[in-house]
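can u pls check wat happens w/ adenosine-5'-diphosphate
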Amino acid sequence: MDSTKNTRGTANPAQTTPGKTQGNTQRTPLSSLGEFALIDRLAGFFPTPSPHTVLGPGDDCAMLAPPEGKQLLLSTDILLEGVHFDLTYFPLAHLGYKAVAVNLSDVAAMNAQPAHITVSIGIPKRMGVEDVEEIYRGIEAACSHYSVDIVGGDTSASITGLCISVTVIGYSAPETIAKRSGAKPNQLLCVTGNLGAPYLGLRILEREAKVLRANPEASLALKEYSYIIGRTLMPKPRLDAIDMLAKAGIVPSSMIDISDGLSSEILHIAKASGVGCRLYAERIPIDQETMKAAEELNLNPITVALHGGEDFELLFTVPLELQERMDDLGVPIIGYITPAAQGCVMVTPQGQEIPLTAQGWNAFPTEA
Ligand code: ADP
Ligand code: MG
């Protein structure tokens, strides 16, 4: 079987209704297929191979031919049921999409474009073949959209929850790679888009899931929050912004993607670069729907934008001379870099200075 052919149309994971009970009505047990037949079925979802893929899935290793003079970038991320996602409101196709998207975002965060992924999946007994295919529909949609191929993976049963781990490979000219460590005093701190929406989308989903559990017939308030829920369920790696910067001939001096929260990411850049930072609260871009949801949930929108996380926007620094260029490109400037001795502070609209702290996602929380 030619496992590298894309035999299906691109799925749209957004068509899955959030909040619905997960799983397909038809559920073929994985045991009736076995590991190898399952991989063969999943191969139907593999996207068109990259020109740099010499040998795709099917052998003991994939073989890649990196473009000449480029450096290889590699990153991996794991998503575990009960830790990173809850299947009561996270549709399987969206989960597949997200597992790819968060990895692509890490390559974007180096100012580079991704090329390949591998997908490893641990499947609990309660899931059938159709459920795994649903996950792969989302994986395929993300791969096709961002032009990356699948060059391998691993498939196993899981005795606990669902687990999806994706590894991504990208290629980049060494001189255009942006690390966390290049920020210098007086440089501008920029962000590629509005913040806080994914966190509030999740809070709304959680709230509506509770409503549905109490009353399965209840009508849900999902439509008025379609933008923020979309940001939760379908994170978009900002590869378009990387493309825009490349076309403008701009190489950021430092860059990071916002996964754990703006505040936490600023502190990462500051630590790696040995600098401080002044962030202006009123300059943080926040969408109207985010504002409305924050108000409804009794949360401060600035706090949400600072600590919500999972925005997958890019935070980066550029020299001060590029201020006008950034304005022309429509990239919000939210602050500037200072010497380390000045620390990392947020300036409120009243002119008050508040030290930035990392309160975002913590992989090892203490027991509540
Ligand atoms: P091995 O025994 O060497 O680990 P496997 O039987 O697990 O090999 O996998 C066979 C081939 O299928 C390999 O090329 C592997 O990369 C690929 N593969 C396995 N599982 C997946 C998956 N979930 N997604 C994509 N490729 C996969
Ligand atoms: Mg294997």
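Confidence is low (pLDDT under 50) at residues 1-21.
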